[in-house]
């Protein structure tokens, strides 16, 4: 992680974790040896994802998230979706599952497992985190600058889908970040 992302994440209060690997609880808490073959990692992700979903699906914001997934959203509305997912990531990533959780007891939760709870790929979560951090840097009241193109795109009605608009928005943020980095080589 470069220092600009680290500084931005600290300024925005959002953590940007590296891709985690599955960790196993200390040997004292495991009753049987655990071997994770590639095919069982997916089953592990599914088990942990289902456990997280069983918790978050009872929360008020879950219903809004699910309802909005079927709508075409402006980026300002999509950012609210991202903020919700990021809060869930921040709440669970790096924590341990209960030791008695069937099929996934005592494992460290990864971002991929959290994304499984939303039935979304890890790449969606990575884009979510990057978009939030860069919006903090270059969006309204940005910590580096307030780019008018970024601010304008937040309120544009998507031409086709929210997903396409989100990709365009992230591309713009990366472009603005690149330009800012060139103009400010000392960070």
Description:
The protein is mostly helical and 187 residues long. Helix content is 59%, strand content 2%. The chain has helices at residues 3-12, 38-56, 60-69, 75-92, 111-117, 122-138, 148-154, 162-183; strands at 23-24, 107-108. Helix 2 (38-56) crosses helix 5 (111-117). It is globular. The model is unreliable at 1-12 and 14-40 (pLDDT under 50).
For this entry, give a set of tags.
disordered N terminus; globular; 187 residues; two-stranded antiparallel ribbon; mainly alpha
Shape: globular
Give the number of helices.
Answer: 8
Elements, N to C (H/E)? HEHHHEHHHH
**Which strand order spans the largest sheet, edge to edge or round the barrel?**
1-2
What does this entry show, briefly?
This protein has 187 residues and is mainly alpha-helical. It has 8 helices and 2 strands.
Secondary structure elements and pairings:
Blueprint: H1 3-12, E1 23-24, H2 38-56, H3 60-69, H4 75-92, E2 107-108, H5 111-117, H6 122-138, H7 148-154, H8 162-183
Helix pairs in contact: 1-6, 2-5, 4-6, 6-8, 7-8
């Amino acid at each position: 992680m470069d220092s600009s992302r680290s500084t931005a994440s600290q300024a925005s209060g959002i953590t940007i974790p590296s891709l985690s690997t599955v960790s196993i609880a200390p040997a004292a808490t495991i009753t049987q040896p655990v071997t994770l073959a590639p095919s069982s990692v997916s089953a592990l992700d599914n088990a942990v994802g289902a456990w997280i979903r069983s918790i978050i699906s009872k929360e008020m914001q879950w219903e809004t998230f699910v309802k909005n997934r079927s709508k075409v959203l402006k980026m300002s509305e999509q950012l609210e979706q991202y903020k919700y997912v990021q809060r869930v990531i921040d709440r669970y990533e790096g924590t341990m599952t209960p030791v008695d959780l069937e099929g996934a007891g005592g494992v460290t939760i990864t971002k991929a497992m959290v994304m499984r709870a939303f039935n979304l790929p890890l790449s969606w979560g990575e884009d979510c985190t990057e978009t939030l951090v860069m919006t903090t840097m270059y969006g309204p009241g940005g910590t580096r600058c307030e780019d008018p193109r970024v601010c304008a795109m937040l309120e544009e009605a998507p031409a086709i889908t929210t997903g396409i608009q989100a990709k365009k928005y992230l591309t713009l943020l990366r472009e603005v970040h690149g330009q800012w980095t060139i103009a400010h080589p000392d960070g």
